Each structure stands twice: as structure tokens, then as C-alpha cells.
Fold GldJ.
Amino acid sequence: MKNKILAVLSFISIIGGGQQLFAEPKDRGSQVLITAGEFVMGDTYCADEQSNSDWCSDEVPHKVRLDAYRIDIHEVTNSDYQECFSAGECGPNALHEDRPQEFNRPGQPVVFVTWEDANSYCQWKGGRLPFEAEWERAAQGENPGGAYFGKKYKQGAPQKVGERAPNSNGLYDMMGNVNEWVWDWYGEPETEGVSANPKGPASGKDKVVRGGSWNSPSHYLRASDRVFRSPELRYSDVGFRCVTPSSEKG
């Protein structure tokens, strides 16, 4: 994984602008439709802004084609997850050992869930965790949305979901608040040709998380930034949202 020692930049300057708006305007329910199509995944931020492409060697721009899908407008909250636990379909999430009350409010994104916990919830809701490419496409857009980040690790906590402005696709907290588990094992992407609905490596050691969190510096708040975490562990800054496939056309 690349070395995260980049200089802290302003939030607006670090998210790529001028991207296509992908969301179908007739959004409904708690999810947004992202239409089928092709896009460029990855960017050249490290080479352009830091003069060192090695830092982001796993973000080489490449073309991806995706089928349509729907993605949660908000990160899954503590109250959402409690419903799954009460139904006997999800295991319990852990509590912060020192400050449990600061992480367990109903409207906050659920944290201290393993990758398997997160995927079990999504399956209970009739979906799954997003493929990494699906997450990145949904995060792209001219407006990256508001972000809650840069808080001290021993003092901060996630805030209630939806408190900041949505991104160009109508999605809240894609940047900051909590990192989000995605489907893929971490690995180098396929950069030749056009990849259709990539799901990442067949196996691996670590899973990818995306988006940055409440304790992240600003350079993590990029649609293309990739971080990996152990899927068996629980973290105070990792939550998730779900997707469901769609047959709708753009």
C-alpha cells in the first residue's frame, strides 16, 4: 500500500472536478440509481500534485464499464443495524471501550462491525456491499459533497449521517464521517482495456475501505483514494452502505 505522507490540501482542491453526473434524476426511496455506463477509475493526483506517482501506484487511471445499480443515500446507522440484530440476522457490533456513548447514538453510522457483519446486513436488506468500482463511480462528480473529517482520534467520533451537503449524485457522507467497507479484496487493478463490472481479486488478506473518516486528514478525501483493512477486525472509523443491482437503463 502506498505511503500516506502527502501534504494536507483543501477539501475542494483534492477532489477531481468536472466529472459526469451519473445519478438518474428520478431517485426513489433510500437509494439512488446510478445508471449503466463507462467511466475512468483512478486518478493522477500524486503525480500531478505531489510529483511522486509511487504514493498512489494503486490508483492508475483505467476504464471501467458498470451495469446499473442502486446505492444507499446514507451510511447505515446504529438504529438501522439494530433492526437487523433484533431480527437475528446480524451479529452485535462492539462498543468503544472508553467512550461507548459517543459512538452509539441512533443516527450515527454504525461502526465496530467486521466486513462479514456489514455484508450480512446488506444481504438482509436484499443487496450486498458495493464493488469498489461502484463505490468510486458513485463518489465521482463535480461536487464531492460536504465532509466531516480531521478530528483527533482520542476525542472525535462520527457525526449523525446526512448533516453535510450531498455530492453530485445525491449521496451523503461519501467523503469523511466513516470509511466504508466495499466488496473487494485489496489488490492492484487491471488497467488494460475496459474492465466490465470488476469485483477485485478472487482472494486476499485485506479488504478495501473507501472515503476517509472523521479522523482522516484531507488527502484521504478523494474519490480514488484506496485504503485496506483486515476484514476480521472492528474499527471506530469504518462503517458501510449497501447496493442493489438494477435492470434500469440510463
